[in-house]
Amino acid sequence: MRIQNLIIPMAVSAASLALSGHVMAETWKMALGDAAGGTQYELGTTFADLVEEKTEGEVTIDLFPNGQLGSEQDTVNNASMGLLDLSVLAINNITPFSPTVGVMTLPYVIQGPEDARTLTQGDIGEELTQNTIRDAGVRILGWAYSGCRRLTNSTKPVATPADLEGLVIRVPKNEIMISAYQAWGVNPNPLAWSETFTALQQGVVDGQDNPYITIDAMKFYEVQDYVTESCYVFSMEPLIISEGKFQSLSPEMQELVLEAGQEATDHSYEYLLETEASIKERLVEEHGMEITQPANDEQEWIELATGIWPEFYDSIGGKEKLDEVLAALGRDPAPAE
């Protein structure tokens, strides 16, 4: 496994089997949206090491962190067309290609790591994997679990939706997340991930939301002072492979890749549990960030944001699909439209 820091032309990888039946040594390319140090990087490096080990060095994987191979949505397109082998990207950036995945980004559906693991590792996760193959031409091999998205800003402590007045908040180009902020009374600024740090640095936007691990990895503490310990969306990053690439592999190689994806996913879950608290502490003690708890156990945030659920029933596969998700989490059905 090698970490690449320069952009180089992408090429389609060689076929996994030579005509002689012997496995040819190959190098696959993996795109990462985040910089080194976050959960995307942890998942990617773990998966790359496992694949190299399981194939006895016949397959190595070069990692291109920090969006070197294009935006996260670009990497879905490139993998679909066979121009890229692998990518780790935020779940909200695969939703435009496979809308049913949006059920995982509805506000306050996933409320912690256990919820995330329950959904991704059960029947619902398998169904979403099949949907991404059908809709986007990519297959989900594994998941990085990054944690609750925490609102940060450079201006003031924020405890209630009313405190957002006057702030410009960056959000991903994702209709569900945009609608959540609109429900809180603000019009967010949807910016590409690659533009976010610069926009915060230059004051184009006042804030953004991401898990503690991402805030630390992307050094947002350099341009943000305040954190609201919110949890409106739980951040997960699927590891995807080009379905064309996957189908070109021998059955044995497919099994090895799937095993590596599962083992990397298990590692990501444990990594989150082991590191999040210490990262939060470091952000406060070493970098001076101030953490504010949402007022009234986040109830006003929850009531307003979950009010948008009916707007997205059609795109996620119907209200019954959300009800299946909620039932899997031991919760009541969603409200009617």
List keywords for this structure.
337 residues; 12 helices; alpha/beta; D-Maltodextrin-Binding Protein, domain 2; 2 domains; 12 strands; four-stranded mixed sheet
Structure explained in plain terms:
- The chain has 337 residues and is of the alpha/beta class.
- It folds into 2 domains: 2-98 and 113-146 and 236-274, 3-Layer(aba) Sandwich (D-Maltodextrin-Binding Protein, domain 2); 150-233 and 281-312, Bacterial extracellular solute-binding protein, family 7 (D-Maltodextrin-Binding Protein, domain 2), CATH 3.40.190.170.
- Helices cover 40% and strands 17% of the residues.
- The chain contains 12 helices and 12 strands.
- The chain has helices at 39-54, 72-80, 113-120, 123-136, 175-183, 193-202, 212-217, 243-248, 251-285, 299-306, 313-316, 319-328, and strands at residues 2-3, 26-32, 59-64, 86-88, 138-148, 150-153, 170-171, 189-190, 207-210, 226-228, 234-242, 290-292.
- The chain has a 6-stranded mixed β-sheet with strand order 1-3-2-4-11-5, sandwiched between helices. A 4-stranded mixed β-sheet has the order 9-6-10-12. It has a two-stranded parallel sheet with strand order 7-8.
- Strand 7 (170-171), helix 5 (175-183) and strand 8 form a beta-alpha-beta unit.
- The longest helix has 35 residues, at 251-285.
- It is globular and about 60 Å long.
- The termini are far apart.
